[in-house]
Amino acid sequence: MTDQDIRSVGAQLITARNLTKKFGDFTAVDKINFNIKKGEIMGFLGPNGAGKTTTIKMMTGLFRITSGDVWIKGLEVKKDINQIKKFIGYMSQKFSLYPLLNAYENIEFWGGVSGLSRKVIKEKKGLISNEIPKEILNQQVKDIPPGIKQRIALFSCLISDPEIILLDEPTSGVDPEVRRNFWTKIYELKKQGKTILVTTHNLDEAEYADRILIIHQGRIILKGEPSELMKARKTDSMENLFKRVVTNHETN
Amino acid sequence: MKRIKAVVLKEAFHILRDPKSLAILFLLPVVMILVLGYSLSFDLKNIETVVIDYSQSELSRSLIQKFSHNQTYSVTQMVKGEGSQSPEETAEEMLKSGEIKQFIIIPQDFSSRIKKGLISHIGVVIDGSDSNIANIVHQYNEMLTFGFISELRDLKDIFQISTKLYFNPENKSVFYIIPGLVAVIMIMISALLTSLSVSREKETGSIELLFISPLQSHEIVLGKTVPYVFIALIEGALILAFARVMFRIPFRGNLWILLVFSLVYIVTGLSLGITISTMASSQKVAMMATLLITLLPSILLSGFIFPLDSLSPILRAFSYIVPATYFLEVIRGLILKGAGWKHFASQGLILIGFSVLFLVIASVKFSQQRKAGK
After folding, report:
1. Are B366 and B225 in contact (CB under 8 A)?
2. Residue B100: which of B122, B129, B121, B123 has the closest Cα?
3. Which of A62, A208, A246, B149 keeps 20 to 30 A from A133, CA to CA?
């Protein structure tokens, strides 16, 4: 067994060890450690600027890791990012679809870029047409309402059927109903055996995750199952729990 | 190939569905050609001249006639200065205010000395604040006075210079300014097209998704360059056609050579643009950098305005790395001289070399950015 195999045993699909990112003197992510099991939904919680996006960007190779490392499926991000890219799907809070292309064209683009055959892309277009009316899919993305846009974005992110799905603030800027539907979709993905890391600053969403990591000022200040964490701290809402740990962390 | 095709199609849709940007990119060259084409002329049409004739003789009048009959000059004779000023003082004031470009003083003994066979002087004071204009005025003066003297002494019977100006017989500066402008605008527009397209993706964040995708760096670079070749080629043709119609520029060469070289030159511009965009963080930065990098050297160091031979050795060396230098040789040669393929082999190869170099730099830069992250 190689070192890499050892790290991925125990069904830990993703392992971060002392993962750190510095921008000059500013430490955005400070020696964080976490594991994510296969088939798990991990909620990554924290206020804006806490270091959530920076962590995801290090996991995808978009940001250079300052120190520490992440292993995904036993592969080291620092060394094997090109291989790792093959089994991750990433949906960014900032951008997901080209606004001047219609939904079908976006799907064709991301399918083509992922190297899918024309036949598979056609099948994928058929699949999305069952979910969303064709008239909408034929519109340029800039004219499509945010809720539906977000579903199309998730569909494009999943187009090459990745094992690991990294969702960076996928539900920001959409209404509660859309958010609920979105989480239904995420549960479906979990059932298919996908591993999902989802960042959010919406506290009510955190309860949907199997486990959560609360990150504040670049450090993980709490991790565990949402219900147990709330029980242990004798609170019934995520919001109270969050406020308490954040205040604790700041006063300490 | 499949992946490049996906990028090409996406890019093409994006351009065609953004009519505002497209309109700007098509209008900009037309406006530039019009404004610069009409304002940048080195031909002097009106040399305002004041003549102070103290001689008042037949000979001096015939010399003045030489000037006033020439369409390039507009001659006024001055007998008295303003108020208590001497005529020279008044003329100097006029020179200062820019009313006139020169004044000529014919001395009292002008005619008598000539008749006696002695050397006779006339004084000419030229506004030297614009050395270019001053030079031209001086040359025109020499030409006219030479004509006057040769008539006077019947030198015509001794020798005559027959000059034939090849390629641009009327010596119209517009004939070499416009091709130069075409070269400048073509590289500016093509570089802008690609540099804005990549930096736009940086601004929206879509470049990150491209970086995470299985796309190879050279596939991004090629996919982003190819669709713009067509747009830039259409723009190039428009610029050329517009220049030809508006300024009646002759065309003596082979249209195919022009097309092929325009294509090569455009690809050089597109590749330059994409290289710039790998280093620029936003569309604004990309735009400023592109304008600076394409406009300044193409105008100053390509032979467009200043002849290459008049540049200092360091600047002359720089001119070799300005793509416009080579295209300018081709386009001037084609338009005015009707030169053929064989005259431009080296220019073509150098431009292709530039394109390959830029594309490789851009691909390497992209790869580095992907590998290293920020």
Report:
1. no
2. B129
3. A208
Nearest CB to B205 within list A86, A94, A117: A94
Cβ-in-10-Å burial (0-12, 13-18, 19+) of B330 comes to buried
Task: Let me know if A124 is exposed, middle or buried by CB neighbors in 10 A (0-12, 13-18, 19+).
Answer: buried
Q: Is the pLDDT of residue A120 over 60?
A: yes
Tell me the backbone φ, ψ of residue A61, rounded to 5 degrees.
Answer: 85, 5
Question: Are B231 and B15 in contact, with CB atoms under 8 Å apart?
Answer: yes
User: B82: number of CA atoms within 13 Å, CB side?
Assistant: 6
Q: What is d(CA B224, CA B207) in angstroms, rounded to the nearest whole number?
A: 12
**Strands, DSSP E only, in A114-193?**
164-168
Q: For residues B132 and B57, which has the higher predicted lDDT (pLDDT)? A: B57
Q: Which residues of A touch B205 (CB under 8 A)?
A: 92, 94-95
What is the predicted pLDDT for the residue at B143?
Answer: 84
Among A232, A233, A230, A188, CA closest to A206: A230
pTM, entire model:
0.76
Strands A67-72 and A41-45: unpaired
Chain A residues with at least one Cβ partner in B under 8 Å:
57-58, 60-65, 81, 85-86, 88, 90, 92, 94-96, 98, 100-101, 105, 108-115, 117, 140
Q: Which residues of A touch B3 (CB under 8 A)?
A: 112-113, 115
Contact B212 A95 (CB under 8 A): no
CA distance A152 to A136: 11
Amino acid at A158: L
**With 0-12 CB in 10 A as exposed, 13-18 as middle and 19+ as buried, what is A103?**
buried
The whole-angstrom distance between B215's CA and the closest CA on chain A is 6
Q: How far is CA B39 from the centre of its chain?
A: 11
Residue-wise pLDDT for B227-279, tens only, equals 999 888 888 888 888 888 888 888 888 888 888 999 999 999 999 999 999 88
Do B3 and A112 lie within an 8 Å CB cutoff? yes
The answer to whether the CB atoms of A113 and B206 lie below 8 A apart is: no
Size of chain A in residues: 252
User: Residue A15 has which token pair?
Assistant: 């392992």
With an 8 Å Cβ cutoff, are A112 and B370 in contact?
no
- pLDDT for A190 equals 93
Q: CA-CA distance, B302 to B279, in Å (whole number)? A: 25
Asked whether the beta carbons of residue B13 and residue A61 sit closer than 8 angstroms, the reply is: no
Q: Do B373 and A95 touch (CB under 8 A)?
A: no
Strand A211-216 to strand B73-77: parallel, antiparallel, or no bridges (unpaired)?
Answer: unpaired
Q: How far apart are CA A31 and CA A20, in angstroms?
A: 5
pLDDT for res A1: 42
Distance from CA of A53 to the nearest CA of B (A): 12
For A108, which of B6, B209, B210 is closest by C-beta distance? B6
Question: Does the CA dihedral A43-A215-B208-B13 come out positive or negative?
Answer: positive
Of the candidates B231, B294, B234, the residue with the CA atom closest to the CA atom of residue B259: B234
| CA count, 13 A, side-chain hemisphere, A167 | 31
- Confidence class of residue B161 from pLDDT cuts 50, 70 and 90? low
Which residue type occupies A150? Q
Q: For B27-85, how does the pLDDT look when each residue is reduced to its tens digit (9 = 90+)? A: 888 888 888 877 776 667 788 999 999 999 988 998 999 888 888 888 988 888 888 88
Spell out the residues 6+ positions from residue A154 whose beta carbon is closer than 8 angstroms to its own: A91, A167, A170, A182, A185
Q: How would you classify the pairing of strands B123-126 and B102-106?
A: antiparallel
